[in-house]
Amino acid sequence: MLEPPLPGPGCALFLDFDGTLADIAAHPQAVRVASSVTPSLAALAAALGGALAVVSGRPIAEIDHFLAPLQLPAAGVHGAERRRADGAWQRLAAPALDTVLGSLQALCAAHPGLLLEEKSGAIALHYRQAPLLEGQCLAAMTQALQQLPDMALMRGKQVIELKPRAAGKDAAVRAFLAETPFQGRQPWFFGDDVTDEAAFEAVQALDGVAVKVGEGITRARHRVADPAAVHRWMEEALRKLAAAAETAKPTR
Ligand SMILES: O=P(O)(O)OC[C@H]1O[C@H](O[C@H]2O[C@H](CO)[C@@H](O)[C@H](O)[C@H]2O)[C@H](O)[C@@H](O)[C@@H]1O
């Protein structure tokens, strides 16, 4: 699989968060973002005319927390919520999850290694600290799904999630691409997880560039090793975009 090329000024850049911008950590709140990342993102966004968005399974509020003080266009909860480049928000109606929360909370109370993450309209059951309970978690979430017909089950990195069926990172990318300043640009998507595969397919169908971060089977045609390699690519992309801007300046 190929190393990704560097982008031109006509690129629209979409970046996943966990496992792409930040290394996977033991706990969702234990994530650390390298100090160079936020300034690089801000500079890249400026060089691309604002056409840079974070597309994550996390709520946008958490992305803002980790990248503070930067607030980028973003899609959160796998696309169930979206903050456009003009600052306007779009949210899918949040399904009521009360009917299933009790049994999932009881499962986590019985097994302290499990972690239930309640998002607006979605739930993630983490078993990173109790990998032997994967089967039990899958059974519990499959049972919960039967009571939530508008939800879909999604596997991630040592997590099983229930998210609105209508939400997807592919749909979020297409929605950004219909708007200024993303419209008319070539889409690029970097992601590390199976939850990013639909977005990989979406950008490649539009003659864009999909980059898988890390190991694993993927439909993406490009790959980098880890978030540190993504950070290095961002720095090189910035240098190339700055040189292109310099060349494009009118001579006196
Ligand atoms: O779409 P992403 O930005 O990649 O978010 C996917 C999920 O990431 C988080 O969970 C994962 O990362 C945690 C921190 O590294 C890790 O502890 C966990 O095992 C991973 O599954 C987040 O907690 C989820 O809400 C996101 O959906």
From TrEMBL:
One term of GO molecular function: metal ion binding
InterPro entries registered for this protein in UniProt: HAD-like_sf, HAD-SF_hydro_IIB, HAD_sf, OTSB-like, Trehalose_PPase
Top EC class of this enzyme: hydrolase
Keywords of the record: Hydrolase, Magnesium, Metal-binding
Source taxon at top rank: Bacteria
Cofactor: Mg(2+)
EC number assigned by the record: 3.1.3.12
Substrates-to-products reaction catalysed: alpha,alpha-trehalose 6-phosphate + H2O = alpha,alpha-trehalose + phosphate
Any one Gene Ontology BP term: trehalose biosynthetic process
Pathways per UniProt: Glycan biosynthesis; trehalose biosynthesis
Pfam families: Trehalose_PPase
Record family assignment: Belongs to the trehalose phosphatase family.
Function: Removes the phosphate from trehalose 6-phosphate to produce free trehalose.
Protein name: Trehalose 6-phosphate phosphatase
